[in-house]
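In the laboratory, one determines a bound structure by crystallizing the protein with its ligand and collecting diffraction data. In a computational setting the workflow is compressed into a single prediction: the sequence and the ligand go in, and a structural description comes out. We illustrate the idea with nicotinamide-adenine-dinucleotide.
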Amino acid sequence: MIPARFTNKLDNVFTTQGSAIFFVLQRCGYIEKSNVFAAATAPHDYLRNIKAMDKKAFNPFEMAQTQFDHVAEILGLEQGTRDLLRNPLREYHFSIPVRMDDGTVQIFKGFRVQHNDARGPSKGGIRFHPHETIDTVRALSMWMTWKCAVVDIPLGGGKGGVICDPHSLSMREQELICRGWVRQLARDIGPLRDVPAPDVMTNGQHMLWMLDEYEAIHGAKFPGFITGKPVGMGGSLGRTEATGYGVIYTVREALKELNLKPENTTASVQGFGNVAQYAIELYHKMGGKVICVCCWDQHDQVSYTYRKMSGVDLTELQWITDKFGGIDKERAKGLGYEILSGDAWIEQDVDILFPAAIENQVTGETVKKISKQVKLLAEGANGPTTPDADKVLDERGIFLIPDFLANAGGVTCSYFEQVQCNINYYWDKEEVLSKLDHKMTSAFHDVSVLAKKRKLSMRNAAYVISVNRVASACRDRGWV
Ligand code: NAD
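The predicted complex, in structure-token form:
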């Protein structure tokens, strides 16, 4: 168990910058070895369950099953459907032998879990991590099923991984792992069965090696086999913007429901990475004003809020930001920004809050600091809000756009990549983004209409829609 005095520090631990603290905690025995990967990959859920689960080891798959059971109850799902959906349809466990650079042979353990493909081929990333566990992969594959379903893309949920540490592997050894992973699964994955993508510690290069192996085995070109490829090698334009823009498409619709014009609103943003920067860009284009952003300072090992009451200038901030989304404090001061504490972003008198950094930020404690002026909270990050804070937001009537709806623009654009590859015709950026807008807007309205009709929170309504869509597909196919 992690003592309470450490849990605040853990808020920063699940970033590259904070990983050192995380491993110190692990070495000191505060996180059991078997839980390290679970904590690092589903940290919000991990932290949320530390208290609840007391001394019982946290298992992300049990957590995902508990969430599912709750929605199954709301939906009154029949037992057979519950039994089917609370477990993956298929799992592959295999060994990948690799001749290492020193001439020895090392065996790596690989997984692929296909949680459910009733609505279409499974979709989900492949993670390379030394503490990969099958239960984490199972949980993540289940969450992918719900995410694809809420935006109504014809894909199911999958996830995969290899227990390995890329930091200690040469490029050649990593290539052999990628090719070995595909060799073990070549008949069970593919554009019509299961479409992988990059995830923790894998990137476009790994995807290209996997694609090449798959095509060599099947003797033809199948660019739609895998997504996350570089533009020009089968990747999609618009993928970089997709998650941040997707958040703002849903915010635009929420503001209409709240009878607010974007140009009359102000916002405060936590995070200044990929999601936050593109969300700010589009929100500014719509006329909104962001008065502050908050990010992690690698040098000081704390977060700071950078405020300019007249509105932040996105381009000037980007000039002084590193590739990890960290702003240069001294140069920001020089540009006239006030440097405030890391918590200050949540206390601002603004209309909209965007937690777009990491998990576990809007908690039972920090939620009390939210200004009376705030009307909308859009979760760009995964899991930024704890259930006790959720309750308070609900009581205060703050409109919430839940994470797996708000940030689904990323997987939606990956689906577009797959479609473009399958038809071997690539759309221009405007076409990709207008299709993305359409998908995100319809998904938002489906959730919002249901929330009102059934008097559910936006989060519960999103879950109900996803689970219901997947359950119906299973029923329609005659599986249950
Ligand atoms: P990123 O690494 O590009 O940026 C993260 C930002 O958060 C950086 O500005 C960093 O300084 C800041 N940050 C880190 N720790 C912080 C702390 N303790 N306090 C304040 N700021 C902190 O990441 P990203 O791709 O923008 O992803 C952000 C979130 O969105 C993550 O939760 C991610 O899982 C989620 N998400 C991303 C995508 C995507 O396509 N990039 C898709 C779905 C969900």
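The pocket of nicotinamide-adenine-dinucleotide is lined by residues 11-12, 15, 243, 270-276, 294-296, 303, 324-326, 342, 356-358, 380-382, 407, 410 (CB under 6 Å). Keep in mind that any predicted model is a hypothesis to be tested, not a measurement.
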